[in-house]
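Thread: Modeling a multi-component assembly for a lab meeting

Hi all, long-time lurker, first post. My supervisor asked me to bring a structural picture of a complex we are working on to next week's group meeting, and I have zero experience with this. I have the sequence lines for every component (227 residues in total). Could someone generate the structure of the whole assembly? Inputs are pasted exactly as I received them:
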Amino acid sequence: QVQLVESGGGVVQPGGSLRLSCAASGFAFNTYGMVWVRQAPGKGLDWVAFTRYDGSTRTYAASVKGRFTISRDNSKNTLSLQMNSLRTEDTAVYYCARWGGSPEFYLDYWGQGTLVTVSS
Amino acid sequence: DIQMTQSPSSLSASVGDRVTITCRPSQTISTYLNWYQQKPRQAPRLLVFSVSNLYSGVPSRFSGSESGTDFSLTISSLQPEDSATYYCQQTYSPPYTFGQGTKLEIK
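Re: Modeling a multi-component assembly
Sure thing. I ran the full set together rather than chain by chain. Output:
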């Protein structure tokens, strides 16, 4: 069965860096786009970044562009999110999700999330 | 960026009621509109994709539709387990924005 397991969350000071990982299993990882979505405490869903199945296209929300980098290692079935210059407003649970469907597009599988807290 | 406006932001209804949640995009999104359900301390779950297609395993009391510029999620007969927050999302163009959510409470 499809599984997505995030790791790497924790507490970091403003201005610091953190790298999140998402281990994928149960499907052909190298044929699916992947995304990161975050959710601040008590708030709604906020789309962060997308990578095409081969990593050739990456798109970002304006709020993270230039600070966050999405990447993938198809040989290890792993998705990553490098987060630099972190701000208090980046505090959230970060979910990785599979970009399913074609030509429709939707997020059909989600991980359980990893909490990132940016605080001094 | 495409803004997705959901209404209402919250509602309370009784078991057996028919409930409708609406989502209005700030510009055209064709049929690239999905609905998700999220329960407390859980990841979101896909309910409906491409406006009206029910995802695998989702109960048939859920349905999606389009009317003019608005998109709707309807629960035909509310069940206790439907207590959750519901989000629409457009996947027409990046950033693939979500609505702000509708919190549904069972009376």
